[in-house]
Amino acid sequence: MSVTGDLDSLESSPASPHQSSGLSERTLTSEELEKLRNDRVLVSDFKQQKLEMDAQKNWDLFYKRNTTNFFKDRHWTTREFEELKNCRESQGQKLVLLEAGCGVGNCIFPLLEEDLSIFIYACDFSPRAVEFVKQNALYCTKRCLAFQCDLTKDDLQATIQVETVDVATLIFVLSAIHPDKMQKALEQIYKVLRPGGIVLFRDYGLYDHAMLRFKSGNKLGESFYVRQDGTRSFFFSREYLAGLFQQAGFETLVNEYVLRETVNKKEGLCVPRVFLQSKFLKSVPSLSPA
Fold first, then answer.
1. Which three-class secondary structure state does DSSP give residue 226?
2. Which of 30, 170, 191, 280 is least surrounded by CB atoms within 10 angstroms?
3. Backbone phi, psi, residue 192, to 5°
4. Does 121 map to a domain?
5. In the chain, how many domains are there?
6. DSSP secondary structure string, 164-201?
7. Is residue 85 predicted with pLDDT exceeding 90?
């Protein structure tokens, strides 16, 4: 279990009586500011290179330890993202969804249960996670195709045709990718999205409590940390995230911090959580005059 493990396991439940959204970062206490200022020691280049080489192995071990029990099913996605409710029945079409970084299916199976008019491509970095998806009783190849894919180097188009996906989700996924390789992942998703298609994003925001809990010696770079189990996490600012998507060709529709409090009963704490919830559009090309 990582130092942030208990908090990470609660990432998928945004409904809270103490929640707000907005464009401003969370205000840090003087103690938190001091902690961040003093945390300047970075993990050595040698160890960072090894973490990158072992990234797939470390996530596979994560799923070996936790199987399907770590994250809760994400029944909240259709409430937070109305685009997932659009089953397109009036057009006689299915909504085609790409769940990038599907894990063990905590997002896709609630969607398959709720919407009979949807087809989901589900890919993950971890072969073990993909096998857990395929072993689920709800998995049906007529409605879902799960496959292993490293978005930073594998060709997504080997499985999904260009411009055939209506909606792609990136839910607590991009933060696990090395910042130098995030751009490549977004460019791959851009290619398979149809013009007018949307990416729905939710991930860890800057100054989330999980970020502030990392001890000295876990820092890989600016807003980038490694957990005890070797998995890594990046904490996004609005500006950084918007820049990544814009460079990949997307337009920003929504890009907000979600500020909430999470009760950690195990430790008797009520801690501030910060997420980014965003929507990015692949524009429809304008017609040039004849």
1. strand
2. 30
3. -90, -15
4. yes
5. 1
6. -EEEEEEES-GGGS-HHHHHHHHHHHHHHEEEEEEEEE
7. no
Mean pLDDT of the chain: 87
CA distances to 107, 110, 143, 224 from 73, in Å: 6, 7, 18, 26
44: in domain: no
Structural domain includes residue 143: yes
Predicted TM-score of the model (pTM): 0.88
Q: What percent of the chain has pLDDT over 90?
A: 64
243 phi/psi in degrees, rounded to 5:
-65, -40
Looking at the DSSP bridge assignments, the partners of residue 21 are 258
- Please give the angle made by the CA atoms of 5, 8 and 9, to the nearest 5 degrees: 90
The token pair at 87 is: 């089953």
100 residue type, one letter? A
Rama region for 223: left / alpha / beta (φ>0; ψ in -120 to 50; rest): left
Residue 55 lies in a domain: no
CA distance 184 to 181: 5
> What is the token pair recorded at 263?
């009760």
